[in-house]
Specification:
The structure is a single chain. The chain has about 240 residues and is α/β, with parallel strands linked by helices. Helix content is about 40%, strand content about 30%. It contains 11 helices and 12 strands. It has an 8-stranded parallel β-barrel with strand order 1-4-5-6-7-10-11-12, surrounded by 8 helices. The longest helix is centred in the middle third of the chain and has 11 residues.
């Protein structure tokens, strides 16, 4: 069964969305806790939280994450700026169920291995991709690695969960890259979450029918392009 991860991107304590990963194009949607409560009311089990301040190195939103974990039944999966062991530990202390590692999967294999050894399946490895290469440091830089190359390396280190984001599609409502995500999941032999471009129920149906482990729903929810209850009911049926 495909797992739906409704998403909250947090910047300066507010729920926002970026267009194509650009910090210069931000739409504010309101209070993250209120949004998370709405997700829970729809029957969601998970919430995917992106700490944009963490990603760009201007602080963190751990108090907001702590509030969501404490005041909703949702399991929190969160990433953004988790570039040392202390921040990962602090995120888990705030109540998160899973931590998404991005940049360090490229820049610090030793730390990544340590986190996988210590936390196991609570670690999700991010494969953020722009033009076929892995994007890092808040999507501002590109590494000389393909998602297959990095994913294969991480699988060898014990990674079981991956978040595959096509940066060019993120927040654009242009449709998820279902084919590439399904093929990557098959090649890695791991659980891959599709992220970026989900625009409506057609995407959810395609992701679920392809047997992809998970799907992030972001802007499509906020712009009323998708009914979260309908999406959850479909994947559970």
């Amino acid at each position: 069964m495909t797992t739906i991860f409704p998403a909250i991107d947090i910047f300066d304590g507010k729920a926002v969305r970026l267009l194509g990963g650009s910090y210069s194009d931000i739409t504010v949607y309101g209070d993250p806790l209120d949004t998370a409560k709405k997700f829970a009311d729809c029957g969601a089990e998970w919430v995917h939280v992106v700490d944009l301040n963490g990603a760009e190195g201007s602080g963190n939103n751990f108090t907001v994450i702590e509030s969501i974990a404490a005041h909703t039944p949702l399991k929190v999966q969160s990433g953004g700026g988790l570039r040392n062991a202390e921040r990962v530990k602090s995120l888990f202390s705030a109540g998160a169920a899973r931590a998404v590692l991005g940049t360090v999967c490229v820049s610090d294999p030793q730390l990544t291995q340590t986190m996988l050894d210590e936390y196991g399946e609570r670690i999700v490895c991010g494969l953020d991709v722009r033009n076929g290469k892995v994007a890092i440091r808040g999507w501002k830089e590109t590494a000389a690695l393909t998602p297959d190359e990095l994913g294969g390396r991480l699988c060898g280190m014990g990674a079981k969960y991956f978040l595959f984001t096509d940066v060019s599609r993120d927040g654009m409502l242009t449709g998820a890259d279902v084919k590439s995500t399904a093929e990557l999941q098959k090649r890695l032999g791991a659980c891959v979450i599709a992220s970026g471009g989900v625009s409506g129920m057609d995407d959810i149906r395609a992701i679920a029918d392809a047997g992809i482990y998970g799907a992030i729903i972001g802007k499509a929810y906020y712009e009323h392009k998708i009914d979260l209850k309908e999406a959850l009911n479909y994947v559970r049926s």
